[in-house]
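Thread title: Can someone regenerate the structure for this chain?

I was given the following input by a collaborator and told the matching structure tokens would be attached. They weren't. Posting the sequence so someone can regenerate them.
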Amino acid sequence: MPDLSKLVRNYLYFPEPIPLDEPPPLWAGNGEEVWMECADGVAIHGLWWDDPAGAQAILFLHGNAQDVYSWSPVRQELKHLDCRMLLIDYHGYGKSGGEPSEKSLYMDGEAAMKWLNERGIEDKDIILFGKSLGGGVACEIAKNRRVRALILESTFTSLARVGRKLFPFLPPGLPLGETYDSIEKVRVCACPVMIIHGESDDLIPVGEGFDLYEAAPGPKDIYLVPDAGHNDVSIIAGMNYTHRIASFLNA
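Best answer:
Regenerated them for you:
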């Protein structure tokens, strides 16, 4: 059986490099550039918004393309939650070193959690927010830690389940190397779980989000956004987007 890991990674990850001397864009506001070291010694890059002072923190784990500079508008989208935020780039993305893989992305998530812990932010005050592929990283962290909450937006249950859609050129049944078996990890999460998904998502079908919701032990919530696709959930939802998230966190 051929090892398809490298081929799958080439079609799964789309990192965009950033020159090391490039400053954050104006739309990142007061986001501070930060660095953290992973278990393999690789340094990864992120943006940190430290306001409101002393508030809970969101660790935002982005999708499989672009970089923290491109993703920084999520800070404005979620600012009304009154949380601090750490947004990181994975191995090979932006200014981060190394190469992306399932193993290295999990190390990135753990390095970010350690960075937050070292600044006095306990797990119980951290909200994991995973978008698309980032949801797989968030589930890996949540299965081992008692965080404040886990929010998964446009996330798949496992790579095997959506493999035919993401890699239609591959024969069915071949091992992909990468797994991201999020549905099994959600089953053992000891925190509240919120699922957000666009009902018209043509990349990760809405049924994937519903299955994650069904697997979560609870407390849990699901927010399905009519007419929203994979990348425009917050835009289509409008102000209701943060209202629903805030209601979930405050419940």
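The chain has a mean pLDDT of 94.
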